[in-house]
Amino acid sequence: MNTFDNIIYTTTDLETAKAIHRALLGVEPHTDQPYYVGFNVDGVEIGLTPRSPDSRTVPVAHIRVPDLRAALAELQGAGAALVDEPRDVGGGTVVAAVSDPDGTVLGLVQRS
Question: Alpha-carbon distance 47 to 66, whole Å?
Fold first, then answer.
């Protein structure tokens, strides 16, 4: 069974987004880097990443899967469109994203 893993928000102002999330969540980030700010609230990972000014701000919930490539093939076979190719984000973690027919972005994550 696949499980919910995290939600990632992109922002053009990482410092302000970090301050807002710190105030909202009532916790300090466990990771505070220019490429990622991560909070863990009751076992749920909430991440902030920078985005380029010409891209959309879209929160993406990631579902943990045991085999990312197999899950991508199954989702594409069901009609999903590939949004982001699989990429290694470090620490044995690989992510990718697809979208449904309405453009909703669905994230996938495989952790080793």
Answer: 21
Domains parsed from the chain with CATH numbers: 1-57 (3.30.720.120), 60-112 (3.10.180.10)
In this prediction the pTM is: 0.82
The whole-angstrom separation of Cα 12 and Cα 21 is 14
CA-nearest of 90, 89, 78 to 106 is 78
Sole residue written with tokens 């991560």: 38
Contact 35, 50 (CB under 8 A): yes
Mean per-residue pLDDT of the chain: 92
**Strand positions, DSSP E, the chain:** 3-11, 31-33, 36-41, 44-50, 60-64, 81-90, 93-99, 105-111
